[in-house]
Give the backbone structure.
Amino acid sequence: MLSEIKAPDTDIVRKAGDFVRSVSNDMLFNHLMRCYYFAELLAQKENSKADREMIFLSATLHDLGFTEVGRGPNRFEIEGAHAARRFLKDHGVPDDRSWQVWTTIAAHTWDLNLFKEDEARITQLGILYDVIALPPEINLDPDDVAEVVRRYPRLGFKRGFYEMHREELDSKQPYPHRFHMCTCIEHQRNGKLDIPDPQAWLDGAPFDE
């Protein structure tokens, strides 16, 4: 139950929460907090022993690449991972933990985290749930989901999040992204590769906005 979930009572958690609040607009901040609580609900459902501080830090810091502290020439997830690690190092977090957060954030636009340790996997599922409400087998309690959204309204998230990605693309041309080797081969050999429309993903999520 959501009422049983409390963010870890540690200094770095409090500082990270204040930090992301200070550098994020309202829409982005609410997204980060929903990702955290959806991840926590999943961890609770699985009775997971995953490190909750790592889940909080990875979930709440994962989109710094869309903020001024995460601006840079690389794609947003890499710049965001750099910014998160700088913040953690500046606040005395040991290297192994700051690098763990870095790798989770850097990989969150792919599926790699789903095959890693529970802290990364659960964080990834929390992010996926807020963006596209997938995978369906998560099956969170609808009342808990509604309460998370009540606490942290979506504020036009489907449109606003898409626009943040458009601005990211417009600011970095040519965009520093590389397709998977198999993707390139499939495209070159028959030209029939189906490239999905991210706007359709966002619009298909079972949230009003």
Q: What stands out?
A: The radius of gyration is 17 Å.
